[in-house]
Amino acid sequence: MTDIGIVGGGLYGSAIAYFLTEFGDEDTSVTVFEKDDLGGISTARSAGILRHHYSNRRHVEIVSRSREIMESLEDHVGHDGGFTQNGFLVGAGPEEADALRDIVAVQQDLGLDVELLDPQEMDAYLPALDADGFEVGAYESQAGFADPYRVATGFASAASSQGATIHTDTPVVDVERDGGEVTAVRTGEGRHEVDVLVNAAGPFGAEVAAMVDVDVPLSWYEVKVAVLTADTPYDADLPTFSDVDDAIYTKPEHGGDFIVGGFNDPPMDAPDAGFETMHDDDYETLVEWFDRRMPGYADAKVVDSWSGVITPSPDWHQIIGRPAGLENFYNAVAGSGHGFKEAAGFAESIAQDVLGRTPRFDLSPYRLERFAEGDELESRYSSASWLA
Ligand SMILES: Cc1cc2nc3c(=O)[nH]c(=O)nc-3n(C[C@H](O)[C@H](O)[C@H](O)COP(=O)(O)OP(=O)(O)OC[C@H]3O[C@@H](n4cnc5c(N)ncnc54)[C@H](O)[C@@H]3O)c2cc1C
After folding, report:
1. Across the strands, what pairs with 169?
2. Which CATH superfamily is domain 88-141+220-310 in?
3. What percent of the chain is modeled with pLDDT above 70?
4. Which atom of ligand 1 is nearest to the CA of 43?
5. Cα torsion 352, 357, 361, 364: sign
6. How far is the CA of 206 from the centre of ligand 1 (A)?
């Protein structure tokens, strides 16, 4: 029997558990240890946007695979994740215009339905928009959004029906290591021997890695989301929109309200530093941005808001794989602010890799050692790390 333990029952832990039960045989045993409830810390607060707009070609491929899984989630896990294909519109001013054009070329090369737009063509997709100041835009039709909590708990429930054991309210407080091997986890309930341990602890990924003396460079940012209502509904068939220059996005909710997000504060000292939700400054940013960029919704009122933590690595990309010197410990962390859209695609390959099979995607570019080796993943954008 191969006992695979997973720390964390957020989206990554749940999806990896699902794919392990899907690909494993009768000798594979999967156990998830979640310190609170299923559904995760970041996952439960996520906006759930899935777009393919990435400067890293491998990322575009992984998101495409995630989208395929989202489109057929019911066939995988028995219920859908609320995936709504509303499209994605993006605009950039002169500084980032070439980056946007290059990214669209990569997407088109991979067969995605994406077109470059002149700024004056953009309001055909989002009538409330004023594209003044943009040099170029793009629209991708296959993008969408889903309900991240529903997706995560769907994966967890399917994993459980396929034989995984899921312990909630069970924090992993220590991991036993014997030389180059992890041997067991310790929880409040006791000791559990493992043959492989997957670290999917999200914002606490560095804390769990430190239990086996592995240094994982993570930082934490509080990101805020406001729900708005306006006289003109932002219907769910209107696209999600990203303003590269101002780092602000809008996304429809079902029912005509919409969310706006992206006005980030400086990094936090710890993953669980207190969340403050929106400040007066944030409201000022929104009012100014709506007047200038989204005049069709300038009457919008904030009806709700929340914030959550995102956990980037130094190059804003995931840290995935076995750290050097530890053959049975596997990191699956650093989802950053874009981890939802990549989760299913990554989880499938991670499960294949953990089981010793050839993964659909080569995960070596995401190895922890890239930071020490000076081989970080590069973003085509110079300022928009969230579009890395
Ligand atoms: C406000 C916001 C908006 C976002 N919007 C988007 C978006 O539109 N599109 C997109 O692609 N991404 C988005 N993201 C990012 C995305 O949601 C995250 O990258 C993703 O959800 C991370 O999932 P995770 O499973 O790694 O982490 P989490 O969901 O945080 O799960 C980690 C789990 O590990 C558990 N855990 C931690 N330590 C331990 C321990 N010692 N023992 C046991 N369990 C432990 C935690 O309790 C938690 O349940 C957003 C994030 C936020 C916060």
Report:
1. none
2. D-Amino Acid Oxidase, subunit A, domain 2 (3.30.9.10)
3. 97
4. 21
5. positive
6. 13
